[in-house]
Amino acid sequence: MTVVTVLRAGTFLYHWTQTRWYFPDHLSEPIMNNDHASLFASLLEQASHASLADLHQPAMSLLTDRGFLSVSGPDSQRFLQGQLSNNLDKLKPAQHHLSTACTPKGRMYSAFRLLHSEKAFLLSMHRGLLDQTQTTLGKYAVFFKSEQSIDTSLVALGLSGSNIKSTIQKLVGNTPEGDSAIKVEESAWLLSVPGTCERYELWLPANQLPAWWDKLKQSFLPISQSHWRLLDIEAVIPELLPEAVEQYIPQHLNLPTLNAVSFRKGCYTGQEIVARMQNLGQLKSRCYHLTAHSAVELIPNTKLTNAAGKTIGEVLYAVTPADANQTELLAIIRVEAAEASDVHLPENDTPFTVAPLPYNIDVKAELQR
């Protein structure tokens, strides 16, 4: 087995076996990417570790675990409308939104950002979801003139920081607003994504990445992908990882609040269960931002308990910043435990606190979308 180990300032940063990148800063999961391994290696040598001090500084992160599924053909919109949780009839060219794909029981097997790229629909998701998403959607595609293919030519960069809009305008020529996207140099897309500071994703062909990296690093500090995860954790914008496939309905990840679910679009696979839970208003668990007040290793699905030792949920993913003796995480936990900040790690006395959600959850208002 080939193993490449890269050292940065005398500190272990990452290594690559033949199939996987591994990061040491509690990113939780191996980052699977064989398509552009050598390209990523040369750029990641320049990236620093995620830190709380740099959280809102102008930064760029290579989103190494990101993959893309392309859905094209004359029936693509009609096909996806019957499979995805959001309303594609309202998605115009050069617009994007979060969406999910569910089993008939309403459990998510995929979640992604969906872009109407004019020629096709691009689904950006964790690479570990690509094969299952393609295979499962393919089972429903036989009666439609639609093709699904994994697009290995694309990569993604995350750009973030306070007051970076003017900088991006100078570099790119414009900035998107809301759910719009702008085409950059005919082959790349720049999307505005939500967060507690300004954030953008640049989806671009891999062969253009070195030139863009050199251009952007004049204004943005290169930081590992765990920096982008920290921003997702802070904003409570969950990503579905392979470890959580078919464990949750969209409400567990607060996705109706994040405009990833339409309750007025009509039928799609899993819609009956998702809609019933929303109408009943009886969801007992959802996603929260937690802080463990010491650096602890928390892999996905690590069980969490209340003070009485009863299981109240599990970890979605976690990041330990390089400059703090604490771990930041997203977890799906019981609402009453979150409200009481009654969260514990079995056989560990590390204290946890639960941050208030940075957005309001209005179940009745969500039903009108």
TrEMBL record:
<dbReference type="InterPro" id="IPR017703">
    <property type="entry name" value="YgfZ/GCV_T_CS"/>
</dbReference>
<protein>
    <recommendedName>
        <fullName>Aminomethyltransferase folate-binding domain-containing protein</fullName>
    </recommendedName>
</protein>
<dbReference type="InterPro" id="IPR045179">
    <property type="entry name" value="YgfZ/GcvT"/>
</dbReference>
<dbReference type="InterPro" id="IPR029043">
    <property type="entry name" value="GcvT/YgfZ_C"/>
</dbReference>
